[in-house]
Amino acid sequence: MKKRSSFRILILHYLKILYLTNAFRIEIRSIIHDSRREVFLKKIKESGFSNLEKVSVTNVYTVDKDFSDESKNSIGKMLINPIIEDFSIGEPNDANSFDYAVEIGFLPGVTDNLAHTVIESISDLLKVEFDVPTENVYSSQVLFLKGVSNAEEAEQIGWLFGNALLNRIHVRDFDTFVATPGMDIVIPKVALGHTPQSDSVNLDISDDLLEIIGKKGIPNGDGTYRGPLALRMSYLKTIQDYFKKEGRKPTDIELEAIAQTWSEHCKHTIFADPIDEVEGGLYKSFIKKATQDIRAAKGDKDFCVSVFTDNSGGIIFDENYLVTDKAETHNSPSALDPYGGAITGIVGVNRDALGFGMGSKPVMNRYGYCFGDPETNPELYRGKDKTNPMLSPRTIMDGVVRGVNNGANESGIPSPQGFVYFDDRYNGKPLVFVGTVGLIPRKVNGKDSSQKSALPGDRIVVAGGRVGLDGIHGATFSSEALDTGSPSTAVQIGDPITQRKLSDVIIKEARDMGFYNSITDNGAGGISCSIAEMAKECGGCDVELDKVPLKYPNLSPWEIWISESQERMTFSVPPEKVEAFIDLMARRGVEANDVGEFTDSGRCVVKYNGDKIVDLEMEFLHDGLPAEPLTTSYEKPVHPVPTFEQPSDMNATMLQMIQQKNVAGFRYISRQYDHEVQGGSVIKPLQGKGLVNGTANVIRPLLESNKAVVTSQGINARYSDIDTYSMAAASIDDAIAAAVAAGGDVDYMAIMDNFCWCSSNEEQRLGELKAAAQACYDVAVAYGTPYISGKDSMFNDFKGFDKDGNPIKISIPPTLLVSALSVIPEATKAISMDFKNTGDLIYVLGDTNNELGAGEYFDMNNEVGNNVPQVNTTEAIARYRAIFKAAQQDLIASMISIEKGGLGVAAMKTVVASQLGATIDLSKLETTVTRDDYALFSESKSRFLVSVSPTNQEAFEGLFSKAHLIGEVSGDTSDEAQLNVLGLSGDALINLSVQDVSKSYHSPFKDY
Known about the structure:
Number of strands: 44
Oligomer: single chain
Radius of gyration: 29 Å
Structural class: alpha+beta
Shape: globular
CATH class of the largest domain: Alpha Beta
Distance between the termini: 57 Å
CATH superfamily of the largest domain: PurM-like, N-terminal domain
Strand order of the largest sheet: 22-24-21-25-23-26-27
């Protein structure tokens, strides 16, 4: 093994070039009113810079390639809309008077999606090729600020729109700008100051030093470390023993590869390890066993096809197609760079659809966000002495929303289904859920499309984006708490345009041409995990690492192997088809490279420039990690009994409730996300004339079929403050109830679990987790809803410092997101929440109990309580089946499942959606409560607010044992529609204008 004489030095270059260069700047500005100016001005003023008078914006493309003046002019013309924009080359665009110019660009090596598109556009226009990375394009933006007093303030404004992990900022005052003239030409290139090679690592050291390697990574020799390996001591001891048996020291790349493969993020060790008396672990004993038991019980009616073994789970859509589903989290990267973390998450889970079987087409995205209150700005720091500040909740929210927007919209995949959930415990680490539903023919080339396998002799082909430093240690980083050592290289940025080309060539051509035997996504751990996972299918692999294409030269072998650079898929291609496969990819603008061979050697072998740098037994790599039995304790907290009295003004209380951020409208997100692309939208994200966010949606993934897919979700993280079993049960029930309310069939419904936990090395937290997992088994089996996929994220904690420099730990509330997927025979039978006609009858299905514990009403009153909602699965399953029958018989005009905020919030959402009024009588409820406010805001599960035409009353009531007729739809859109509520005593309790309710519902995020 070669030894390095000096340690690796990473130089992130800025080449500032003023003379004697081929590089030139194209500056583009608007010649008409530019609405961006108002957006920038508003955000800057909201951030405390109240003296700012004016902002103007210029887009800049720095082209590092030699072109004639004529060609430069042609490029400039191509990049503008001549009706609203003009451009200049080599000289600054006139920005009129300003005090400071602030240029925001990317740091060297950061993915620049806009620049990639410009390169392709120039190549198409001028029929030239760019020799990347020697020749390149770099995008940036210049803000011209009027009303700024000094350069420091101008830089602070610049950082409102940049992230120190990703961006560079240059400031120039007006006089210097005019004299120079303009901003410098900046070429942000990456130079790696070392010769790439692999080192051996000495593990024959003390346990104390071993523990440091497990936490901080391989030492560089200068007191620094490469980044977290997240290896427990028992794992390190096992690795020690393995290499003693092999008679050698491990290489750095071998240790890094093992760490990725054994990480909690990839192996889900907490769910896999024995825990108390549950020897098989939580996953096998509760989640997987639930699905096995359900499928066995369904027998011939089992609709599952592929569960737990692939990138996504799959169920039967019809006789010709399957639908697939998968949801992931991107929490840790989103805490550091919300935009990059979120866009990487959404395009990554799109690849999970592409990686199902022989490749399914992404037909719908899901999303869900858990944030701190965006109206607060807590001072949190990852480092001492106010260093490494955490981003504000508003900054995180804005970046995440924009990231999913760009990733999904630019990929041409609709994003109709989602939620937002707020709790200040997400200030330390947000949760960013993203999911994708896919569609795939059941047969591809006459074979079962859900089955795939790499074969010995197949070539290993990696297609898509090139490899850089982005995403280094992403898997191990996500397996730990966020703290001062969290690596910036763990953040990567997805490129949806590149991925869309890759997706199209897979789904529209390569799959059906039989060009490959197996396919998988390059996600966590990069090719170290994707190639090694596919090698399990055949028994081994030989990789030539120097054939992997790089974004820039001199990456170390271990970096190439574990980088999580985006838009990459790995294929197992028969040797005789490699040339045609790579040629097809090239003709579609996708780079593909043959990097090795799948074998049956039983070993994973990697070579670099002819040297063997990895030689591991496949069995050890995948199954060598030792089980580590876990023990739990679980003491449920007891909270003070709320003592506040019922408010005297229930009108004001109702309006306050509908403004709670967890129930208010978030159309500012829904309107950014394209839900009509691909043309299958049925029940849309915003329902009714009043545009209310639904908790379920319906799409037709196959336009020539009337069959439809219903998707929904349930999340009740605050319930964990009382009882995690009840939290999990309620989340499952809410997901199923929401799907049922939209027309879903509980007997043809699958679910997914996404656990996001905290401090999972503590016995109390493990006890909470075990209780939640038990609920996952109990409720899923009772409903007959199998789990087809899932994911967990176990260390969502923040360890850092507060504004006074005191150490602080912030743990998220134990959170479980449950997603539901149902197939219904007729899209026309789908149901929306908005009332349809004056005079329709209003029913509540289900009982209302004193179950407000940890709910929205108690939270609004700064209480927790103890009466957390309970799920009665026996009553609920009968109700769900009856609702589906009623839906199929067209007996239901509107329906909404009663969730957060109870009946009161459901009623307000329904009148807002329809813009019709209603009269509701609480005395007609089946309820155990004696207070009007408790009857309104109880969050008892498995309940629905339904409207029915009087002509269908008898048929409807005949299907239900507990259909409580509580009111009638009143008023119309030409009247001043009212929501009137009579109390439990029959007296008038609430009289609200529907317009006032609408304004309150939309008010929390109206300015976002």
